[in-house]
């Protein structure tokens, strides 16, 4: 049974860390993480614009895992306007899907970024340009995590949701 987990939110909100922690709870080869930043920034060195190849490639990677019955975690900023249609298509082919959104203020994301490992990679001003706040997908109910949720509580909530459907 294929399971799609979508983890969205602004830069430095904890998406990648959460995806990795959830993946670690599965046996090796059981869960694939399709990370927007890896595809866009590392594989293609591409700007995030509508219709860009990175969106199609991210969909193909996630679709590959779903077609093989894996748990697939798609994580990234995943702007609803640019990525929503792709996420809807993935949800339609998955046997089950779970959607999460880190709903943090710009101030909170900047604070988290400044204490993280990529703090020197981009500035608070750049983060403000990318910040969009809550953007509902429209086709799926998303669990929203605000700044009151600890990393451990977020991972436990996702894990409990996964187990609740098995």
Provide a short characterization of the protein structure.
The chain is of the alpha/beta class.
- Tell me the number of structural domains: 1
**Widest β-sheet, arrangement of strands:** 2-3-1-4-5
Count of β-strands: 5
Report the major sheet. 5 strands, parallel
At the first level of CATH, the class is Alpha Beta
Question: What global shape is seen?
Answer: globular
Low-confidence stretches: none
Helix and strand composition category: alpha/beta
The CATH topology assignment is Rossmann fold
Number of helices: 7
Give Rg in angstroms: 15 Å
Q: For this structure, what is the CATH homologous superfamily? A: P-loop containing nucleotide triphosphate hydrolases
CATH architecture: 3-Layer(aba) Sandwich
Distance between the termini: 9 Å
Protein name: Kinase
GO molecular function, one term: kinase activity
Organism: Nocardia terrae
Keywords: Kinase, Transferase
Name the descriptors.
166 residues, Rossmann fold, 5-stranded parallel sheet, 7 helices, 46% helix, globular
Explain how this protein is built.
- With 166 residues, this protein is of the alpha/beta class.
- The protein has one domain (3-164): P-loop containing nucleotide triphosphate hydrolases (Rossmann fold, 3-Layer(aba) Sandwich).
- Helices cover 46% and strands 17% of the residues.
- The protein is built from 7 helices and 5 strands; from the N terminus they run βαβααβαβααβα.
- It has helices at residues 15-24, 36-43, 53-67, 80-93, 106-114, 124-130, 151-164; strands at residues 3-9, 31-35, 71-76, 96-102, 142-145.
- It has a 5-stranded parallel β-sheet, with helices on both faces.
- Helix 1 packs across helix 7 (151-164) and helix 3 runs parallel beside helix 4 (80-93).
């Amino acid at each position: 049974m294929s399971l799609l987990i979508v983890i969205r939110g602004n830069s430095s909100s904890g998406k990648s860390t959460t995806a990795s922690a959830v993946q670690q709870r599965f046996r090796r080869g059981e869960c694939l993480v399709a990370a927007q930043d890896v595809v866009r920034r590392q594989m293609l060195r591409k700007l995030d614009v509508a219709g860009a190849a990175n969106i199609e490639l991210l969909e193909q990677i996630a679709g590959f895992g779903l077609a093989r019955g894996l748990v697939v975690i798609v994580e990234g900023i995943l702007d609803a306007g640019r990525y929503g249609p792709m996420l809807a298509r993935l949800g339609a082919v998955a046997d089950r899907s779970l959607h999460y959104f880190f709903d943090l203020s710009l101030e909170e994301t900047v604070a988290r970024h400044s204490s993280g490992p990529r703090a020197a990679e981009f500035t608070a001003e750049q983060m403000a340009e990318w910040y969009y706040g809550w953007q509902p997908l429209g086709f799926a109910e998303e669990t929203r995590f605000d700044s009151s949720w600890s990393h451990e509580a977020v991972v436990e909530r996702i894990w409990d949701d996964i187990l609740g459907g098995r």
